[in-house]
Write a structure and sequence with these properties.
alpha+beta, 33% helix
C-alpha cells in the first residue's frame, strides 16, 4: 500500500462528503467503533460484521492508514492518502481516505476515517480544476450576484474587461459600475432569468472602456449570458453573469457584410466615374471619414495601359470623392480636375510600389507633409490622424489609387481595415477596368458605326429627308441600326432602314457589310422583294462564315431586320418590302396617320423563305417615317404606347421635317435609350408633266432620226440648247440598240431633274454589254459612246422588258428655280 498527501477538500458534491461517503470511526488502535451505511455499500461488509474488529483486517497493506493515524496522534492534525482495500467479494479496491481525530478523552482518542474510490476522486478533482480555471484563468468574464443582483464575486477576466477592480463592484448592482452599459436592460433581463430559470443571452455594444491600455480608443462589443444559481434543494442563491468580448468577431461580420454589400453596389453600371463614386459611397462613413479616388489620366482618356510600375510623375485625375460632410472640407480638387501628390505622400508610394500603404498614426510634423501646404493646412484644421492608400489594380495593371482618411472617427486604421479596403479596392478595380474596356470598345464601335452611316444624304429631288441616329447607353452597347437614302435611275429614290441583331463591334461591322450590300443591290435596280431575297442569302453566308471560322463570335446569332422602299416621283407611287421589320408610318396631309399593310417577311438570315412587296400611291407632301424597333419600344417596352406617341409626332405633316424629328425624339425616347434608335423621315415630292416627256416608237431603223429630232426640239423648249448635241447622240445610240437587238414596242422618255435623263425601253430582256470595237468593225461602239458622254448609265429590268438609261449633268438647274 502506498499513500500520498492530497489537498484537503470538502463541501457539497465532494466525494468525502460525510453525508454520502463511506465513513468509519476507529479507536486509537484501529478497532472499528462505527460503520456507516456508505461503508457497507462501498466495501460490502455489514456494520455488525465490522464493529469491534480491527480495520486492518480488510486492508491489503496495513501500513499507510496506521502510520497516518500515528502521525496525526502526535501533532493532532488530520491526514489523507491512498489505501488498498479488499472488498467482501475478494476484489482489491484502490481507495482514497481522509482521517481526522475525534477527541473524546485525551487518553483514548478516536478517528473519523472517510474513504472513496480513487477514480471518483480523480474525476471530482478534475471538475474542481475546471471550475477554478474557468473562474480564475478563462478569458470569459464572470460575475456572481445575489438575488438582489448585487455583486458577490468577480473573476479577473471581468476585472480586465471592465477596467474596474473587483472591490469597486461590491455593493453595486449588475451593470452599474461600467460606464456605457445599459444597467436597466441588464437588470431587467437578469430578473427574468431569476424568475423563470431560463438562461438568456444578450449582446451589448459599449463605448470605449476606461483606462484600457490594450484598446485605448476602440469601442468594444461584448456578449453576455446569465443563468440562475440554485442549491440542492432548489432554493435560488443568485445569478451567474458571463461576459465574452466579441469585438473582433463583430467587426469581422461587419467587414464581411460590407464586402457582400459592395459586390452588389460597386459596378452597377459600366460608367467609369460612377463605379469610382460607388466605391467611395461604400467606404464612407462605415470605414472612413473621407475617400478620394484618383485614376491615371490615361485611364480616363481611354488610352492603352501597360503592366508594371507607375511613375511618380504619371498624371492623375480625380474622378470621385466622398466625405462625412456635404461641404467636403477635405477636398482640394474637384472631380474631373487633374491632381498630384509630392514625394512621400501615401498615394504616390502606393502607385510606385503597387502595394497598399497604411499610416495608422499620421505625424503632421513630418517633412513630407510640409511639401504640400494646401493639404497640410486642411489636415491640421480637421485633425486628420490616420490614413491609408490602396492601389486600384486589375489584370496586372495599376489604374489608380484610393485614399481613405479619418479625422472624426477617433479609431486609427489597423491591418484589418487595410485588408478590407484592399479587398473593396480590388473589386472596384475590376469594375473600373471592365468599364474602361467597355468604353474603349463602345467608342470604337460607335466610331465604326458612325463612319459606316451616311454623313450627309445624297442630293436628289424625289424626297426631302431628315434623320436621327441615337446610340444606346453604354450599358447596352452600340447596336447595328442603319438607314440610307439611295438615288436610283429615272429620278427615283430608294429608302432603307435596318437593324442587326446584337450590340458591339460585331453588330456594327455586320451592319456595314449589309449597308454596302444594299448599295450594290440597289445599283442593280432590283425590285424590293428581290433585293431582300439577295440580302437574306448574304446574311446566311455570313452566319456560315462565322461558324466555320470558330471566331469569338461563333456563338452569336447573325440576323437582321430590314425595310426597303422605292419611290417614283413621276408616278407618285412607292413599293415597299420588309424582312421582319416594322412597317413605316405614313402621314397624309388630309388623312390620319396610317401603318400600311405591307406583307411581313421573315427576318434576314433564316434562308429559303419568300418576300413580298406592296405598292401604293403617295401623294405629294406625304410624310413617311422609317424607324427601327428601338423607337417604338422605348416607351417602357409598350409597343402600343410607342405607336400612339409616333402618330402624335406625325400628326402635322406640314411642319418642317427637322421639327417633326425633334418631336419624335422628345416624345418617344428617354434621356438614355436602352437600344439604338435610327429613323428616317421623308416628305415626298413629284415631278410635273412639264418635266417629263415620252414617245412610243416603232421598231424601225428609220425611227432613229425622228427620235433625234424630237429630242432636240424638246431640249430647246426646256432651254437646254447646250445639251442638244450630246443628248441627240445618246438617244441615237440607245434607240438604234433597241431597234437592232431588242423587241418592240420602243419607248423614249426624257426627264428633266437635277440631271437630264434619257431612257429607252423595249420588250427584250437581253442585257447590253459595253465593249471596245476593233478598227475595222462597223458597229459595237454605241454603248461605248454613251458611256463617254453620260455621267452615269445603266440598265434596269421591268416586268415588260428592260430600260437603258443615261444621265447627263446640267449646266444650270431648272429645278432650283422651281424652289426644289
Amino acid at each position: 500500500m502506498s499513500g500520498s498527501e492530497a489537498e484537503p477538500s470538502g463541501g457539497l458534491g465532494s466525494p468525502f462528503d460525510v453525508t454520502h461517503a463511506a465513513a468509519v470511526v476507529v479507536d486509537e488502535s484501529g478497532v472499528v467503533e462505527r460503520w456507516s451505511p456508505g461503508a457497507e455499500e462501498l466495501l460490502g461488509y455489514r456494520a455488525e460484521e465490522m464493529v469491534g474488529r480491527p480495520l486492518a483486517e480488510v486492508l491489503d497493506d496495513g501500513s499507510a492508514l496506521p502510520t497516518a493515524l500515528s502521525d496525526g496522534r502526535r501533532d493532532g492534525e488530520g491526514r489523507g492518502g491512498l489505501v488498498a482495500v479488499r472488498h467482501r467479494d475478494g476484489r482489491l479496491m484502490d481507495l482514497a481516505f481522509r482521517a481526522c481525530p475525534l477527541w473524546g478523552t485525551v487518553e483514548k482518542p478516536s478517528w473519523l476515517v472517510v474513504v472513496t474510490e480513487v477514480a471518483g476522486l480523480r474525476a471530482w478533482e478534475r471538475e474542481q480544476a475546471v471550475f477554478r480555471g474557468l473562474f480564475t484563468q478563462s478569458p470569459i468574464g464572470m460575475a456572481v450576484v445575489d438575488p438582489d443582483l448585487r455583486y458577490l464575486l468577480i473573476n479577473p477576466a471581468l476585472e480586465r474587461m471592465d477596467s474596474v477592480p473587483a472591490r469597486e463592484h461590491m455593493g453595486h448592482r449588475l451593470g452599474e459600475v461600467v460606464p456605457g452599459l445599459d444597467a436597466d436592460v441588464l437588470q431587467r433581463e437578469a430578473r427574468r432569468v431569476l424568475e423563470t430559470g431560463e438562461p438568456r443571452q444578450t449582446h451589448e455594444t459599449i463605448g470605449p472602456v476606461r483606462a484600457d491600455p490594450s484598446f485605448p480608443r476602440h469601442n468594444r462589443v461584448r456578449s453576455g449570458s446569465s443563468y440562475r444559481l440554485e442549491d440542492a434543494s432548489g432554493e435560488v442563491l443568485g445569478l451567474c453573469h458571463t461576459v465574452l468580448d466579441v469585438t473582433s468577431h463583430y467587426r469581422a461580420r461587419q467587414r464581411l457584410a460590407l464586402v457582400n454589400e459592395a459586390s452588389g453596389s460597386i459596378g452597377t453600371t459600366l460608367d467609369l466615374d460612377r463605379t469610382a463614386q460607388e466605391l467611395a459611397e461604400v467606404l464612407v462613413p462605415r470605414v472612413a471619414d473621407f475617400v478620394s479616388v484618383d485614376l491615371l489620366d490615361a485611364v480616363v482618356r481611354m488610352q492603352e495601359l501597360r503592366p508594371g510600375p507607375v511613375s511618380a510623375t504619371e498624371p492623375l485625375r480625380r474622378v470621385a470623392h466622398r466625405s462625412l460632410q456635404e461641404d467636403l472640407p477635405e477636398a482640394v480638387v474637384e472631380p474631373g480636375e487633374p491632381t498630384s501628390y509630392p514625394e512621400g505622400w501615401a498615394p504616390i508610394e502606393c502607385l510606385v510600389s503597387g502595394r497598399p500603404v497604411l499610416r495608422a498614426v499620421v505625424d503632421l510634423s513630418a517633412r513630407w507633409i510640409a511639401q504640400d501646404p494646401v493639404r497640410e493646412a486642411r489636415m491640421r484644421e480637421l485633425g486628420m490622424h490616420s490614413a491609408m492608400a490602396v492601389p486600384l489594380r486589375a489584370r496586372g495593371i495599376t489604374m489608380g489609387v484610393a485614399t481613405v482618411v479619418r479625422w472624426k472617427n477617433p479609431d486609427p486604421f489597423d491591418e484589418d481595415d487595410l485588408l478590407l479596403v484592399e479587398e473593396l479596392g480590388a473589386r472596384a478595380a475590376v469594375c473600373i477596368d471592365n468599364a474602361r474596356r467597355f468604353a474603349h470598345e463602345h467608342n470604337a464601335a460607335l466610331t465604326l458605326q458612325r463612319s459606316l452611316l451616311p454623313r450627309d444624304l445624297p442630293e436628289q429631288s424625289a424626297v426631302e429627308a431628315a434623320y436621327r441616329y441615337l446610340p444606346a447607353d453604354m450599358q447596352a452597347g452600340v447596336g447595328g441600326d442603319w438607314f440610307d437614302v439611295i438615288p436610283l435611275s429615272g429620278a427615283r429614290v430608294a429608302m432603307v432602314v435596318g437593324d442587326v441583331v446584337g450590340h458591339g463591334l460585331h453588330a456594327a461591322a455586320t451592319m456595314g457589310r449589309l449597308r454596302t450590300a444594299v448599295h450594290t443591290l440597289a445599283d442593280l435596280d432590283l425590285p424590293p422583294d428581290e433585293l431582300l431575297a439577295h440580302l437574306d442569302d448574304l446574311v446566311v453566308r455570313l452566319s456560315e462564315e462565322v461558324e466555320e471560322a470558330e471566331s469569338p463570335h461563333s456563338g452569336d446569332v447573325i440576323g437582321a431586320t430590314c425595310l426597303y422602299a422605292v419611290y417614283d416621283p413621276i408616278s407618285r407611287r412607292a413599293t415597299f418590302a420588309r424582312a421582319g421589320h416594322p412597317s413605316p408610318a405614313i402621314a397624309h396631309l388630309e388623312a390620319p396617320v396610317e401603318l400600311p399593310d405591307i406583307p411581313a417577311g421573315p427576318p434576314l438570315g433564316l434562308g429559303g423563305l419568300p418576300f413580298e412587296s406592296a405598292e401604293m400611291e403617295l401623294p405629294e407632301g406625304s410624310v413617311v417615317a422609317f424607324f427601327t424597333d428601338g423607337l417604338i419600344e422605348a416607351a417602357d417596352r409598350d409597343v402600343d404606347v410607342g405607336f400612339e406617341r409616333l402618330f402624335f409626332a406625325l400628326a402635322h405633316p406640314d411642319r418642317p421635317l427637322e421639327e417633326i424629328s425633334d418631336t419624335m425624339v422628345r416624345t418617344l425616347l428617354p434621356d438614355r435609350p436602352r437600344d439604338d434608335v435610327a429613323f428616317l423621315v421623308v416628305r415626298t415630292r413629284a415631278l410635273g408633266s412639264d418635266d417629263v416627256i415620252s414617245w412610243d416608237l416603232p421598231a424601225d431603223p428609220a425611227v432613229v432620226a425622228d427620235a433625234r429630232h424630237r429630242t432636240g426640239r424638246q431640249l430647246a423648249a426646256w432651254g437646254l440648247d447646250d445639251s442638244v448635241f450630246t443628248t441627240e447622240l445618246i438617244v441615237s445610240e440607245l434607240v438604234t440598240n433597241a431597234v437592232r437587238y431588242g423587241a418592240g414596242p420602243i419607248r423614249l422618255r426624257l426627264i428633266r431633274d437635277r440631271s437630264l435623263i434619257c431612257e429607252v425601253s423595249d420588250c427584250s430582256n437581253t442585257s447590253p454589254h459595253l465593249q471596245r470595237a476593233r478598227g475595222m468593225d462597223e458597229g459595237g461602239r454605241g454603248l461605248f459612246l454613251v458611256a463617254q458622254c453620260a455621267a452615269r448609265w445603266g440598265t434596269r429590268y421591268t416586268p415588260e422588258g428592260k430600260t437603258i438609261w443615261a444621265e447627263q449633268p446640267l449646266t444650270r438647274a431648272p429645278w432650283a428655280a422651281r424652289g426644289r
